[in-house]
Structures are given as structure tokens and as C-alpha cells.
Amino acid sequence: MATFRLGKTELMVEKQGFGCLPIQRCTKEEAAALLRRAVDGGMNYFDSARGYSDSEEKIGYALHDVRDRIYLATKSHAQTGKELTAHLETSLRNLQTDHIDVYQFHNPAFCPKPGGEDGLYDAALKAQQEGKIRFISITNHRLSVAHEAIDSGLYATLQFPFSYLSGPQEMELVEKCRKTDMGFIAMKGMAGGLIQDGYTASAFMETQPDVLPIWGVQRDRELDQFLECVKHPAAMTQERRATIERDRKELTGDFCRGCGYCMPCPVGIEINNCARMSLMLRRAPTSQWLSPEWQEKMEMIRNCLHCGRCASKCPYGLNTPKLLQANYEDYQTFLK
Predict the structure, then answer these.
(1) I want to staple 42 with a disulfide (CB 3.0 to 4.6 A). Which of 83, 141, 230, 295 is the partner?
(2) What is the pLDDT of residues 211-250, one digit of tens each?
(3) Where are the domains positioned within the chain?
(4) Angle at 64 between CA 63 and CA 65, to 5 degrees
(5) Cβ count within 10 A of residue 257
(6) How many CA within 13 A on the CB side of residue 265?
(7) How far apart are CA 154 and CA 14, in angstroms?
(8) Superfamily for 3-246?
(9) 191 — alpha (psi -120 to 50), left (phi > 0) or beta?
(10) pTM, whole model, 2 decimals?
């Protein structure tokens, strides 16, 4: 195992973290089997959120008896201090623990601070004083909020999208966290499914010694890659460098990362997948995306109201309606 210190938290984390959003789509027993395999294989950092339906409950069910071997991170999307306190109590119950190691504000549109009218930071600070939270942290998709969080000195860690497709803006955040001894947790390490090879993705993360990637895992074959990287950290070979360079050339410019913050759509379009269909058709087995189910979902694009709600919520500033239309037109060429 290769562990490192997660910034000022002093937590010694294994380089391969486990992102628990996808286990929402597993049965309780399937999720438990994955989580136990992960612990037995050396993983020790597990990240969930109050907003991930039953993810926390599955973690508590599977890992309550190995609590002393793992670190638990979760998040609250609360808008007020009172709501955050309620979220925290639910998370503690679900996770079957008396404390959470890293408790994060979940992608707020602003940087919570002590004394704010929202009461978020003060509620978290009170919970920390009561021993229910060890470290107060934040996740975000907005560069401005991320910079403000780092500059504030109020947070132990920052969780932000980061992969080998990231640009200089994200790398600046990593360097800034390094200089301020703030832990950096990388979500979307596989760029929402656009990166296909976990070994290459992990090899890139090995070049960033202070970054903790949390890999979204739903299937045994996905977990297998990262457990292998626990035993034998992935090396940056010439072949993997070539893969990274090829992917960077192919995936530059405006493309949907699949984060889902544009959702929900008032007419039911599954924007976070439909808006990147062209890329998925070319980077994954085509048949699964041409199924009757997906044809029906893509047809929903014709009902777009062009209301602009999705574009206003996109953290990457994409013209989402235009991107949806372009993906719809491209999709039709595959059906002919």
C-alpha cells in the first residue's frame, strides 16, 4: 500500500479512494460485496453524500464493523445551519458511526464562512466541537468558489473535478492547495466515463503525489483495476503517455463532463448523458447507447423548451441547449 498525508488533516490515506455515488445503482448486497473487497484490498477512504440516495446506508451496512480501519467522508447540500445539522444526524445514523472524518459542504454556490446568514459554517463548527465532525471541508465545480475556499484558510480539504483532461485552471488549484497544506480530493478522475482506462488515469494521479482520487465504482471489473493499483501503483509508461496525449487532443474544447448540476430538466431530458452522447458513441461500445431505451431518451431532446435553466447552472459555462441539439443530430446518423 502507498499511503500519503492528506494535507493538514494528517489522515494517512491510501492513494486509491472509493467514490460511493455509483453504489446507489447496486443492490444492498452487491454494494456490500464491493465495499468489503475494497477494504480487504487496502482502500481506506470512502466518499459519499447525503444526496446520494441510499449510498450512506449501504456503507454503514457493509463497513460498520471495520470503522477503525477506514476514513469516512460525506457531504451536505443544506442551505441553512438547521438543515445541515439534520443532514449530519441522518448521515451519522446511516453510516452507523459516531463521527465523520471529512464533512463537506456539497457544491455550494458561495463559500460558507463563520457568521454567515446561512449559518452553515457555524453549524459545522458546532458539530466539530461536539466531536461529530473531525474536519470541515468543501466540494465545488466553480473555480471562483474553490479559490475563495483555499484563500479563506477555513477548510481542511477541497474536492474538485480533476483528471488528465483538466486544464491549467485545475492544476493551479492543485498547486495552491499544496502550498497552503490543504488536501486536494479529485472527483471525476475518469472524466465522467470519457476516460476508459483506469490504469492510465491512476498513473496520471501518481504524478500528483498530494492528490487523492476517489474513483466511482459500481462493478467488480472497475474495482479490480484500482485494487491492482493499490498493490502495484500504475507507472507512467510511454504507452500511457501516448493515450493521455491522444485523449487530450480529442477532448479539448466544449464538452459535457456529465456532472449533472444542470438537472433536473423541466421536460425530463437526461441532459448530463444526452449532451455528451457523441463522445460516448465513439469512446464506448456503441450498441449500449443505441438501445431502444437510449433512442427514447435522445428523442426527448426534441421537447427542449430552450428555457436556459440548464445553461445557467452549468459550472463549465456550456451552451447546453445547443450542445443537446448537436448531439441529437449526430445520434441520428448512427441510427441510419
Answers:
(1) 230
(2) 999 999 999 999 999 999 999 999 999 999 999 999 998 8
(3) 3-246, 271-335
(4) 90
(5) 23
(6) 23
(7) 24
(8) NADP-dependent oxidoreductase domain (3.20.20.100)
(9) left
(10) 0.86
